[in-house]
From TrEMBL:
InterPro entries: AB_hydrolase_fold, DNA-binding_regulatory, Peptidase_S9_cat. It comes from Xylanibacter brevis. Pfam families: Peptidase_S9. This is Alpha/beta hydrolase. Gene3D superfamilies: alpha/beta hydrolase (3.40.50.1820). PANTHER family: ALPHA/BETA-HYDROLASE, ALPHA_BETA HYDROLASE FOLD-1 DOMAIN-CONTAINING PROTEIN. Residues 169-321 form the Peptidase S9 prolyl oligopeptidase catalytic domain. Keywords: Hydrolase. GO terms for molecular function: hydrolase activity. It comes from the Bacteria. The keyword Hydrolase applies.
């Protein structure tokens, strides 16, 4: 009798464990598709983002209409080392210069969604500008969103492409500026060896790590703790796509970075929580750094809400670092 009860108990435990495993597997698959899936048919058009930028930042409207009517916005396609076809748009500076901005968009945005930052660099600062579509965004190929992690290598390739487009007998002098996931991409790149042409970085409301961001959203949107779902979803991501949430730690890349970086964040941001800013800023212990807190701004709206001050802060930081001698990595 005792042995029979013991066997029944063991069988019940096994059934419960199998059910838990199945539930976690199903939930992990759902979370991967929910957070990293972005099929072509769901992507908003270039016109959608142009209209949105005009609506949110109306001072850019005349410039945007002008550059499109005069065919100043040009397309380029390249094949990345991984084999996928990638797209970007670019604009030459109003006057010939080797100063160039590579501007990186956020989660489920596309190149045209960064035209307000292109306005800042092209119209206000007289820079050449290149705006890539990241992997699985816009007109670039791709089967999932990389959350700015493997995107760092693609942005490095786009820096090379920009140099080929805009160099006028001399290497370009580049700033790489990203917002949200684009900022996470910028920080991920900052910890790698970058060529001399990449002289400084601007990150606007980037997250400290992919795991931190997903954990924050898991709690906010679903009311769930990070463990165990975040762990199992990370395992599935590694099995499916070759990278895990645990490795995608922007804050560790910032610790390794040596080139100048400007950190920007709205103090009312709860999508990429404002609390992430301080640890990121403090993690940078090598090279110049500066910080700008956009009072009252929520996620990715610092420029919209404070465009004159934002422009001034970016201008001062970027020009001071493009014109100075620095340690290069």
């Amino acid at each position: 009798m005792i042995k029979r009860k013991k066997r029944r108990f063991q069988a019940s435990v096994a059934i419960v464990l199998i059910l838990v495993a199945l539930i976690l597997a199903g939930a992990s698959s759902y979370m991967i598709d929910y957070s990293l899936g972005y099929p072509q048919q769901e992507r908003n058009s270039a016109e959608h983002w142009q209209d949105r930028i005009k609506d949110e930042c109306p001072w850019t409207t005349h410039w945007m209409d002008s550059v499109y009517q005069n065919h100043c916005v040009k397309d380029t396609f390249v094949t990345m080392p991984s084999g996928y076809r990638a797209h970007a748009i670019y604009l030459y500076a109003p006057k010939r210069t080797n100063r160039t901005a590579v501007v990186v968009h956020g989660y489920k945005v596309r190149a045209e969604g960064m035209l307000h930052i292109a306005y800042l660099y092209n119209h206000d600062m007289g820079f050449n500008v290149l705006l890539p579509d990241l992997y699985a965004h816009g007109e670039s190929e791709g089967d999932h969103i990389q959350m700015g992690w493997n995107d760092r290598w693609d942005v490095l390739r786009w820096s090379e492409v920009a140099d080929g487009i805009f160099a006028d007998g001399q290497s370009t002098r580049q700033v790489i500026h990203g917002i949200s996931m684009g900022a996470a991409t910028v920080m991920a790149l900052s910890g790698e060896q970058t060529p001399d042409r990449v002289e400084c970085f601007v990150e606007d409301c980037g997250y400290s790590s992919v795991k931190d961001e997903f954990a924050a959203q898991l709690k906010d949107q679903f009311g769930l703790p990070a463990f165990p779902l975040m762990t199992t979803t990370s395992w599935l991501c590694e099995a499916r796509y070759g990278w895990s949430f645990d490795e995608a730690r922007q804050i560790d890349q910032v610790r390794k970075s040596v080139k100048p970086m400007l950190f920007i964040h709205g103090d009312c941001d709860d999508f990429v929580p404002y609390r992430m800013l301080k640890p990121l800023y403090e993690a940078k212990t090598h090279g110049r750094k500066a910080i700008y807190v956009a009072t009252g701004s929520d996620h990715a709206h610092a420029y919209r809400d404070h465009h004159q001050e934002y422009t001034q802060r970016v201008r001062e930081f970027v020009l001071s670092n493009l014109l100075s001698k620095k340690v290069r990595k």
